[in-house]
Design a protein that fits this description.
alpha/beta, 13 helices, binds pyridoxal-5'-phosphate
């Protein structure tokens, strides 16, 4: 249908007259099109399910009634999560369309005068969701040498800003390290509001605050199935004391987790050993990749408890990034995103042959 304009543009006020003024400074989230490149930029699990398993999964999907709304509480999926992750029965579970949505819901639940605190550099969504929810965002720089959390600086900022919420990625993205537990514990103890431990990379870290949940009334733990191997499903979950989750749940739109995700995630949890085998391979590859990067002249690789490795190049990082693409590999260029990430790129651990292709492209680029 090609319609003639019914209204002359001159009679409509400029967009800026209708829109939130802060939209002017925001840019939409951009994920690059990988084309034919080896995709090592987004922390995805590079392995698919074996064909036989895919067949069983598809047979299950046949029975799904997509003409009906999904279970709004996803009770069966929550029960499966409870069993898989040994979530205590006195703790609540809130599901999100990815943990990104949970970060948004948490941010929307806070008073408009509130402030959110997180280290920097860290996962960009904490800032994005705080700012779009109209909150103040305060960040405390990590230690330059090793990206460790700075205890004194963090506790000082905590006392000064009285943040309504603190986000700590454990392990941290994009640095890959696990913050010192003694410091995290102090933050949880000192902060009045909730402290959200974001364990997106738990499958690779073998460290968690899930078993600490009963100890603090303000501790919330966030997980996702994305990095485990189900990024396409979009399922995140927040675990914590019911009083917090009940309030945050009021802001959740009904049916935020669709029926295909509910059924498929349950299926994935029932075959958890397959995913664990894959993440085990990725952990092994991470160690090999780290050693190879460390042995490369002009490269400093940081230790990682996640499925990616942050590395710093002595030469021009933008140029190296461009040459890596020309060499067929897509990584994440972090140079310019934070003063502490000067010269830094982040590579996701892929399959052995992908990592080998990355290493040879990098050596050629250097
Ligand atoms: C990738 C990532 C997420 C987002 O996960 P989704 O569930 O895919 O939205 C959350 N936190 C951190 C630290 C991440 O790196």
């Amino acid at each position: 249908m090609t319609g003639r304009a019914r209204k002359s543009p001159g009679r409509v006020a400029p967009l800026a007259d209708w829109l939130r003024p802060d939209l002017g400074e925001l840019v939409a989230y951009h994920a690059p099109d990988p084309g034919d490149l080896i995709k090592l930029n987004a922390m995805e699990n590079p392995y698919r399910w074996p064909d036989a398993l895919v067949d069983i999964w598809l047979a299950e999907l046949r029975t799904v009634e997509i003409n009906r709304y999904p279970d709004p509480d996803a009770a069966r999926l929550k029960q499966a999560l409870r069993e898989t992750y040994s979530i205590p029965s006195d703790m609540g579970i809130l599901l999100g369309n990815g943990s990104d949505e949970l970060i948004q819901l948490i941010s929307m639940s806070l008073r408009s005068s509130a402030c959110v605190l997180a280290p920097r550099p860290t996962f960009v969504m904490y800032r994005h969701c705080a700012v779009t929810a109209g909150l103040k965002y305060v960040s405390v720089p990590l230690q330059a040498a090793d990206y460790a959390i700075r205890a004194r600086a963090t506790l000082d900022l905590l006392a000064r800003n009285q943040p309504a919420a603190v986000f700590l990625a454990f392990p941290n993205n994009p640095t890959g390290n696990l913050f010192e537990r003694a410091v995290i514990d102090r933050v949880i103890e000192e902060n009045a509001g909730p402290v959200i431990i974001d364990e997106a990379y738990a499958p690779f870290a073998q460290a968690s605050y899930l078993n600490r949940l009963g100890e603090f009334p303000n501790l919330l733990v966030m997980r996702t199935l994305s990095k485990l191997g189900l990024a396409g499903l979009r399922l995140g979950f927040l675990v914590g004391p019911e009083p917090w989750l009940r309030e945050i749940d009021k802001l959740r739109l009904p049916y935020n987790v669709n029926v295909l995700t509910q059924v498929s995630a349950e299926f994935g949890l029932r075959h958890y050993h397959v995913l664990e085998e894959q993440t085990g391979c990725i952990r092994g590859e991470r160690e090999r990749l780290h050693a190879a990067l460390q042995a490369t002249d002009g490269v400093t690789a940081y230790r990682s408890a996640a499925n990616f490795i942050l590395f710093k190049v002595l030469s021009d990082a933008d140029l190296i990034d461009r040459r890596l693409r020309e060499g067929g590999v897509l990584v994440k260029n972090l140079h310019g995103s934070d003063p502490l990430l000067e010269g830094c790129l982040r590579v996701t651990v892929g399959r052995p042959e992908e990592n080998a292709a990355f290493l040879s492209a990098l050596r050629a680029a250097l």
